[in-house]
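User: Hey, my collaborator sent me this sequence without any context and asked if I could get a structure. I don't really work with proteins. Can you help?
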Amino acid sequence: MSADGHTGIIDGTEIRVRRPAAGRKGRNKFVSGKTKQNAVKPIVLTDAEGRVLFCSPVRPGSCADITQARQLGPAKLLADGPVMWILADVGYQGMGAQIGERVVTPPHRKFKKNAHAWYKERHEQQRKTHSSRRIRVEHGIAHLKNWRALARRLGRREHMSDIVQAVAGLLSHPQSATLSQGFRG
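Assistant: No problem. I've predicted the 3D structure and written it out in structure-token form, which is a compact way to encode the shape of the chain:
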């Protein structure tokens, strides 16, 4: 990515929540298109090591990743912040135009019907390479979801933003403390 090592990895994740009561206005907005379950979705930005750098407030599960990134701020933070390359999945294609082409997404699949075998192999290799570099964000998300407050899914939707951001803050503190102290074995 960059010579100075400033690489971030961004992804959205869904956290299941209780279903709104019958007859409530906006009951269907929490239904995720991907999992078909009631969920809220935060966006998580990690560094290349999987340490959580940013965790957005949650939005209803029906919101697309790129829409949420545009509305909640990672796009604004990255546009105004230090130069940082961002590895993202297919859900963020098009976001690079907003933040100066610093978002790297998997290559588009632009095959014609009878594409050469070498072209398909090259595309698959690029996709796998990108995916293997992005795996660290999944590790960061897993650390978030290991906390009981997020794993049990019994909390109220109204408080999920506060809970997710509190857990992200608790996770980032020990990580930064460990980095500054070094390993003493």
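In plain terms: The helical segments are 65-72, 74-80, 117-145, 148-151, 160-181. You can pass these tokens on to your collaborator as they are.
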